[in-house]
Specification:
110 residues; mainly alpha; 434 Repressor (Amino-terminal Domain); 5 helices
Length: 110
C-alpha cells in the first residue's frame, strides 16, 4: 500500500513554509549543521530538509523530535490551538448536547 498524497491549500502551505523557515533559522542561530540535528533527532537529513521547506508529508513526531534536538523548542507545540476563540465562543453559546438515557440496573429477583 502506497502513501496517500497530502492535499494542502495554498494558505496552509504558506504557513507550513513559514514554520519551516523559522525552524531553519533556529538551527542556524545555534550554528548547528543539519546533519547533526538529524542525528540528534533520529531522523534523516532529507527529513530535516523537508521540515525546513514546510513539507506537509512529514510526520508530526519528526517535527517534535527536531524541535527537541534544537534544545527544548518542543514546548512550542503546546501553543497550537491554545487560544481557540471560535471553540470558546461555541462553548459559551451552550449548545444543547445529546443526552443518553440513564443506565438501567439489573434487579436480582430472589
Amino acid at each position: 500500500m502506497g502513501r496517500r498524497a497530502v492535499i494542502v491549500l495554498p494558505k496552509m502551505q504558506k504557513l507550513l513554509s513559514q514554520m519551516g523557515e523559522q525552524i531553519r533559522f533556529a538551527r542556524l542561530r545555534r550554528h548547528l549543521p543539519a546533519e547533526l540535528v538529524a542525528e540528534r533527532a533520529g531522523v534523516s537529513r532529507q527529513t530535516v530538509t523537508a521540515i525546513e521547506k514546510g513539507s506537509a508529508s512529514v510526520a508530526m513526531g519528526a517535527y517534535a523530535a527536531l524541535l527537541h534536538a534544537l534544545g527544548g523548542l518542543e514546548q512550542d507545540l503546546l501553543l497550537i490551538a491554545k487560544d481557540d476563540e471560535l471553540g470558546r465562543e461555541l462553548q459559551d453559546l451552550d449548545l444543547p448536547q445529546r443526552k443518553r438515557a440513564p443506565r438501567q440496573r439489573k434487579r436480582d429477583d430472589n
